[in-house]
Amino acid sequence: MGDRRGHSTDRRRHAADTERNLVLGGFGLALLVGGLLIWRFWGAGAAALGLFCMGSILTLFGLLWLILWIMEQLGGAS
Q1: pTM of whole model > 0.85?
Q2: CB atoms within 10 A of CB 36
C-alpha cells in the first residue's frame, strides 16, 4: 500500500526501520569515536581491548535479537 507518490504508508515498518537505523548508528558512533578517543589517550592496546569489548556487547545483542526472532517465528506472530 502506498500514497499517490509511491511512498509507503506502513508506519509500523517505518518506525521499526528508524529504530534499527538509530541503534546501528549509535553503536557505530560509539565504536568510532570511543575507539579513537581510547587510542588517542591510552594507546593501541587499550583501543584494541575497547574494540573487543564493544564487539562482545554487539555479539550479545545479536544473540538476543536472534533468540527473540526465533521465538517470534515459532509463535506465529505477524
Answers
A1: no
A2: 11
Question: At 75, which amino acid appears?
Answer: G
In the three-class reduction of DSSP (H, G, I as helix; E, B as strand; rest coil), residue 1 is classed as coil
The sign of the torsion formed by the CA atoms of 69, 73, 74, 75 equals: positive
d(CA 17, CA 12): 9
Confirm if 51 and 43 have CB atoms less than 8 A apart: no
Contact 10, 1 (CB under 8 A): yes
pLDDT at 27: 85
- For 57, residues 6+ apart whose C-beta sits below 8 A from its C-beta are none
Q: How many CA atoms lie within 13 A of 1 on its CB side?
A: 5
Residues 6+ apart with CB under 8 A from 2: 8, 9
Domains of the chain: which residue ranges? 11-75
